[in-house]
Amino acid sequence: MGRVDFLNETTRYINVTGEHTFENGTVISGNLNGYKVSVSENGVNLTDGSLCKYYLGDNFQTLGRGDTKRAIEQLSDTLHLHINKATVTRIDVAQNFIVRQPIENYFNHLGELAHYKRCPMLNDGSLYYFNHKSTVIFYDKVREQRAKGQPIPELYRDRNTFRYETRYKQRLSATFGVERVTGALLYNETFYIDIMNRWKATYQAIKKINDISLNFGVMTTKQELYKMGLLSLIEQQGGQLSMLEQIDEAQKRGDLTRKQAYDLRLAVNDACKVKQGLTIKNVAIDELDKKVKEAARFYR
Questions:
Q1: pTM given for the model
Q2: Residue 211 confidence (pLDDT) above 80
Q3: Fewer CB within a 10 Å sphere, N or C end of the chain?
Q4: Residues 6+ apart with CB under 8 A from 131
């Protein structure tokens, strides 16, 4: 920003809460409509806030591309800075869905995601997937708001509100293949569509654990009978993910050799690939599939 005197100029536009002096200079802390702001002689950092909440008043709503641009412009006007030139260090992409069933029912049908570690959080009723680049989260948005003591918009009161969120917090330029992620890039059409497609594709890449329907009308061989029996057993044991975990545990206990465990995993995965006539999609997953697909298309 050239010769802008951040300490004396920018601090006029925020609610100042503290001032600290370090070896390399002074830092003034404050807040701005939910953002934590720290100002030094070298620049301004905005953290722990939500651009959606800043502009629309809450993050139950969705910040589309046009609103993103207007939010950046409003933030720029407020701080008297070119926020479109700022470096972005975190992006959260999320949407709330009003769904038919309790939120936990949907978690039971979301299985493994390649290159992520699946981690159910029983204490707050959420489901996390972790890797070194991003975090994928499914949770009850209304429950979270209640826990924080924050208001719930009338539309979502007493409704099952399922939130699907992807958080990018590491090496954004490498993740998105750009030199630098800036405020202006957030509402660039190509970038915006790409990040929405990533959000949709990440959900689609999660292995879905389906319910089993035994269709005797298509069973013509003993092999099909055996496969249908295995599919039924997998379902009774909690689905594909649960079955694979039991095989892994048996191998660790020494009940199965490495080769035996491999063969069993192969049989389970092979059986679960069979869909036509032998399995039907769970109604909860079918509902989520449609909502995610529609959201990705609509908010472009």
A1: 0.76
A2: no
A3: C
A4: 115, 116, 117
Q: What burial class does residue 32 get, using C-beta atoms within 10 Å of its C-beta: 0-12 exposed, 13-18 middle, 19+ buried?
A: middle
Q: Are 39 and 28 in contact (CB under 8 A)?
A: yes
State which H helix or E strand residue 7 sits in: helix 6-9
**Going edge to edge, which strands form the sheet with 91-99?**
91-99, 160-168, 134-140, 126-130, 117-121
Q: How far apart are the first and last CA of the chain?
A: 31
So what's the pLDDT on residue 285? Answer: 86
H/E stretch holding 51 reads: helix 51-56
Nearest one of 160, 271, 172 to 225, comparing CA atoms: 271
Average pLDDT of 133-151?
A: 93
pLDDT digit string, tens, across residues 241-258: 889 999 999 999 999 999
How is 201-221 classified by DSSP, letter by letter? HHHHHSPB---B---GGG--S
Query: Which pair of structure tokens corresponds to residue 267?
Result: 């049989």
Q: Where are the domains of the chain?
A: 1-49, 50-207+293-298, 216-280
Instruction: Determine contact, residues 170/244, Cβ cutoff 8 Å.
Output: no
